[in-house]
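Progress against Task 2.4 (sequence-to-structure conversion) is shown through the following example record, which the project officer requested during the mid-term review.
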Amino acid sequence: MKRIIVAASFALIVPLAPVAAQQMPQPSAPGTVIVSSLRRFGNQYAGWLMTAFDSVPAAKYGYKPTPAQMSIGQVAAHLEDANYSICGRMSGLAHPMTARDSAADTVKMTWPKDTLVARLKASFDFCKTAWDGMTDAKLVDSMPGFAPGRKIVRATLAVVFVTDLVDHYSQMANYMRLNGMIPPSSYPRPKP
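Structure tokens generated for the chain above:
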């Protein structure tokens, strides 16, 4: 099973390495081409998410398209928790918990926009630190999986982090469009 997870993780990552090496400057540390690619995509989506949450008016943080979906405030609170969980687990870094961290999601989603945005930004800063010590060689390290007794490789968490950001950015982009707003990925590109 472990070999299948490793193969699946690298089947997603390895094709990016030659493209990343051509499109971006060579990484400063040897052995970080794959990590640099994942980090670059994560940073792009983190930036778009922060811009999206900054640009949505505070009055819209309770908005959700249907009763079954998360509100914008819930998405922000969920992302904060997910960032600390995934990046902490991936890197072995511990996020020092505060009393507010243990608040229920139903409480967090009602916090003011400024609080949610500041906490989300702090979680992305934590993730940047988590990525700092990462190398391609560390991506194959075995670690406890999501189910008791199961093992995964660190690459799984790296891919989960990036895909979670992509998923929630898509969600925010749709929410913004439904409210007549333009999502950050659709902003006009600067001319070269």
